[in-house]
Automatic annotation (TrEMBL):
The keyword Transmembrane does not apply. Keywords: ATP-binding, Cell membrane, Membrane, Nucleotide-binding, Translocase, Transport. It comes from the Bacteria. One of its GO terms (molecular function) is ATP hydrolysis activity. It is a peripheral membrane protein. It is found in: Cell inner membrane. The keyword Transmembrane helix does not apply. CDD domains: ABC_PhnC_transporter (cd03256). GO terms for cellular component: plasma membrane. Residues 248-271 are annotated as: Disordered. InterPro entries: AAA+_ATPase, ABC_transporter-like_ATP-bd, ABC_transporter-like_CS, ABC_transpr_PhnC, MetN_ABC_transporter-like, P-loop_NTPase. This is Phosphonate ABC transporter ATP-binding protein. Residues 248-260 have a biased composition (Acidic residues).
Length: 271
């Protein structure tokens, strides 16, 4: 049985503004699905509808066979515990330490007073240390988040999401603000962790080449509709044109591969 099933999911802001229309797909345990498509295609809306940050106007979101579209209150909060989200802009509390931000992933499991005082069970603290070690940030545990680089902040976001002990990861453009090398490192880390834990993930990603490298399945959206669902190997020029529109895709790829390294001239300092 699939971990997540979307059945005819729709999100209409008005009769003319249809962010999503009749989207149906399934995500299985351990499967990493990349969402691609032009700006405004509905990628972020789709992710936000799954965990009900946006309320769909039609269809169903079945998570572990529970329909999330018809629950609210405590039942919705309990379901969200198992659906962790990693944001493009990190969504961290900058004035708090790395450790405190990771532990915030446990807020759904502790009392209001404990969360207010930032008091967590010892097992949660030990888990947070283990997660920071896994993402390569153990030595930064007590450093304020606003002292970290963009790549390090994204790793904190990954560790915080994993602290929820999720059964599904939703990831919204995790590499958009990162340089190419750091972007690869973050995507590699996500794919490795998902493989280790058998954790399914849906990643909204704007970089098609990164998607080809690190996801097992690609779903292409165009104007709120699924127009492609297949493996990275099937993402040929015709499919890219269907998703994004006309472009010389071979020439684009050739330019990316053949672009020479910029020449740097070092100037001797004046005496």
């Amino acid at each position: 049985m699939a971990t997540l099933q979307l059945k005819s999911l729709s999100m209409h802001y008005s009769a003319k503004d249809k962010a999503l229309s009749d989207v149906s797909l399934e995500v299985n345990a351990g499967e990493i699905v990349g969402l691609i498509g032009p700006s405004g295609a509905g990628k972020s809306t789709l992710i936000r509808c799954i965990n009900r940050l946006n309320n769909p106007t039609g269809g169903q979101v079945l998570f572990k066979q529970q329909d999330l579209t018809n629950i609210s209150g405590s039942r919705l909060r309990q379901a969200r515990r198992k659906i962790a989200m990693i944001f493009q802009e990190y969504a961290l509390i900058e004035r708090l330490t790395v450790m405190e931000n990771v532990l915030s992933g446990r807020l759904g499991y502790v009392s209001f007073m404990s969360s207010l005082l930032r008091k967590f069970p010892g097992k949660d603290v030990q888990q947070a240390y283990a997660l920071l070690d896994r993402v390569g940030l153990l030595e930064h545990a007590n450093k304020r988040v606003d002292a970290l680089s963009g790549g390090q902040r994204q790793r904190v976001g990954i560790a915080r999401a994993l602290a929820q002990n999720p059964e599904l990861l939703l990831i919204d453009e995790p590499t958009a603000a990162l340089d190419p090398r750091t972007a690869r490192q973050v995507m590699r880390l996500i794919s490795e962790i998902c493989a280790e834990q058998g954790l399914p993930a849906i990643i909204n990603i704007h970089d098609v080449n990164l998607a080809k490298l690190f996801v097992q399945r690609i779903v292409g959206l165009q104007q709120g509709k699924v127009v492609f669902d297949g493996s990275p190997a099937q993402l040929n020029d015709d499919v890219l044109t269907l998703i994004y529109g006309e472009e010389d895709w071979q020439q684009s790829e050739s330019n990316e591969e053949d672009t020479p390294e910029p020449q740097v001239t070092l100037l001797k300092a004046s005496a």
